[in-house]
Structure prediction request, 226 residues.
Amino acid sequence: QSALTQPASVSGSPGQSITISCTGSSSDVGGSNSVSWYQQHPGKAPKVMIYEVNNRPSGVSNRFSGSKSGNRASLTIAGLQAEDEADYYCSSYANNSVFVFGTGTRVSVL
Amino acid sequence: EVQLVESGGGLIQPGGSLRLSCAASGFTVNGHYMSWVRQAPGKGLEWVSVIYSGGTTYYADSVKGRLTISRDNSKNTLYLLMNSLRAEDTAVYYCVRDFLQWTEYWGQGTLVTVSS
Prediction:
């Protein structure tokens, strides 16, 4: 049950696009379509931004998109805004009936 | 309206026990799979345990043998019994419905502090 690997931090200027990677293995990300992305602001509960690799829940901006290739999932935030500054986590189902989170990425808007 | 309200957190000495509760409303806990997720202060999210609608349970290696997930269908409540607590169990504990599904829902969390 090793955590999925994410970059510690990613930054961008307002209006730019950024991409956060989430690298796992064939036992989790590579073998499952149950991959989600969460946004967490300080002191708040996580909020799901993407589920099942590339689906957005109702109410989430279409500036957020997800994808997956092999053992790596990605979250792209287009048109970066100040309110997007937060911590982001990926998560995946693993083939031994457990779940695993990524290490987390701090997104900064310059 | 779906609601998940965690309770039972607090300060506990190392080696002690604590039971967390998650009262659900707006749906039945035995009709969904329910998880516990925790977050240590200043750290990332960690999945802890799941109980499926059929009653099967799974745990993270870090808590196996010490934490037990269960539910009371009559009270529509999810539980996490925590034994042999360690300093590294200090965290906010969230209960989550349908983790990783489109019907996912999170509670607001309850803080557990393990310290002497």
Chain A has no helices and nine strands.
